[in-house]
Amino acid sequence: MSPRRKVDGASEPDSAVPQPRHRRAWGLPLAVTIATAVAAAAITLCTLVLIAHEKQSRATINDIAALDYVRSFMTEFTSPDPFHANDYADRILAQATGQFAEQYRQNLNAVLVGVAQSEPTTGSVLEAGVSRHNDDGSIDVLVVTKFTAKSPDGKLVMQRATRWVVTAKQEGDRWKISSLIPMI
């Protein structure tokens, strides 16, 4: 037989046997698909956790800033100086906004007379804590203060503790007091 002979499909018995097919490797594409889905789910979950963490972190920082401001304000508010009543009233009014500012302006003369006639008082904040977050972005803070005053002769020391609900609102980069309510 010559190597150039014509092969006829009918004459050769081997031509009827089907050629073996290459088996598809489906394991590798399946593994890659599953790994991609797991990686996408992990990235999504990590992103959601990061967003929640950042939200909580910002809220905590905001609460701390509000508490520090309210503590400072209440220390100043509960420490009137009768010798500088006008300065005291101006400082308090500069830190007021909203309803508290309106009430303070309306009663400014009475406040000035009351401060000028009082004895020097030292106020301090015993404790403060966030009570509630309001829808308008303001924060209600429950504050416990202590007033300490001496009698005119200096022999009698009077102390009184009071509770307040103070609403602090951020205006721009500054906090201001929009409501100040004594608790009975």
Automatic annotation (TrEMBL):
Name of this protein: Mammalian cell entry protein
Membrane-spanning parts: 26-51
Localization terms from the record: Membrane
Keyword Transmembrane helix part of the UniProt annotation: yes
Keywords for the protein's UniProt record, in alphabetical order: Membrane, Transmembrane, Transmembrane helix
Record region (Disordered): 1-20
Main localization, broad class: membrane
Biological source species: Mycolicibacterium austroafricanum (Mycobacterium austroafricanum)
